[in-house]
Amino acid sequence: MDFYYHPASPYCRSVMLLAKALNLQLNLRFVDLMTNEHLKPSFVAINPFHCVPTLIDNDLNLWESRAILVYLVDKYGRTNSRLYPKDARTRATINQRLFFDHGTLGARFEDYYYPMYFENAPADAAKMEKLEEALTTLNRYLTDNPYAAGPNITVADYSLVATVSSLEAVKYDLTKFPAVRAWYEGCKGTMVDYQEINESGMLQYRAYFESGPGATAAN
């Protein structure tokens, strides 16, 4: 399987962490976003939306990290893997957490931080309130259960941990969300090769933020 990625991307890192958990060997194909390699015709031919991560498995071209996570477990995980069980109710909860990560938590993180760091925009208190509303919801999920979707680690945790690491990249303090902080620290200790994959990539992501025109004002 060819996996087109950039290590700073949290979306790429979530897939790489899950691949390690499944003991899958990805053929890593680095895409240099900083030099616009993703806009070259050779890559656009693979993915017309020219984004990473992108997975090629035989004749399947797949992008969107959460779709890739689900595909890898469905195809290469054990039958009825706890990472993404066949039970419809359990899957519905996992899917809800994945969509929450994509459409709410991750989106609100980017909506607050990206304009500040990359457009030199002032901090927007209303946007921070929305982000913390999402974190409050995640904290509630993790107060009731040790993992995002229940008693077992699932693909939802692999997606969410990459998003929460983005908060660490911008040095956001999770003290107000103790269940999120405890879960996050636990993931660091239990996910295979976490330091190599997510910690190092998060530091690259931090450097990307700190190179933006609004970095001084945002810190």
From TrEMBL:
Keywords: Transferase
GO molecular function, one term: glutathione transferase activity
EC number in record: 2.5.1.18
PROSITE patterns the record matches: GST_CTER (PS50405), GST_NTER (PS50404)
One example of a Gene Ontology biological process annotation: glutathione metabolic process
Keyword field contains Transferase: yes
Origin: domain of life: Eukaryota
Keyword Transferase recorded: yes
Catalysed reaction, written as an equation: RX + glutathione = an S-substituted glutathione + a halide anion + H(+)
SUPFAM superfamilies for this protein: GST C-terminal domain-like, Thioredoxin-like
Family: Belongs to the GST superfamily. Theta family.
Oligomer and partners: Homodimer.
Name recorded for this polypeptide: glutathione transferase
